[in-house]
Amino acid sequence: MKATQAAQTAVLGLGASLLLVVGLGFLTAAFWIYLATVSTALTAAMVIGGIYFGAGLIMIAMISARNRSARRELERMELARQHKSGDLQGTLYQIILAFMSGMQAGQKGRRG
Questions:
Q1: pLDDT for the residue 64
Q2: Does the structure show a pLDDT above 70 at 58?
Q3: What is the pLDDT, as a whole number, of residue 19?
Q4: Distance (Å, whole) CA 60 – CA 23
């Protein structure tokens, strides 16, 4: 049942994607005709190219943000797992690092 539903969802998604690409092609052609009528073909190419380039950059930024968010979530889960498992050695190591960091900050504060 789940496999059938997943296949139907995949087919619908593929069909929707195909229709969106065809529609985008027609919209691009219409926009090109309009811009070429109002200005030159070079201007039309630059505007349409700039729009697609900008949309691509935005999508790359969204993917990058999603990857960073997923990486942070994995780090949080790993840290929570370590705390739950009672990783005494890791906890002591973190306490020692925090203590040393505080000592160094205190020494810098007295000198500066």
A1: 85
A2: yes
A3: 94
A4: 23
| Count of alpha carbons within 13 angstroms of residue 102, beta-carbon side | 6
Residue 34: closest CA among 19, 47, 52: 47
CA dihedral 36, 38, 43, 48 (to 10 degrees): -70
Query: Encoding tokens for residue 110?
Result: 């007295």
Written as one letter, the residue type at 76 is R
Give the residue carrying structure tokens 């496999």.
3
pLDDT digits (tens, 9 = 90+) for 62-102: 888 888 887 888 888 877 776 665 666 677 778 888 888 88
SS3 86: coil
Residue matched to tokens 């160094």: 104
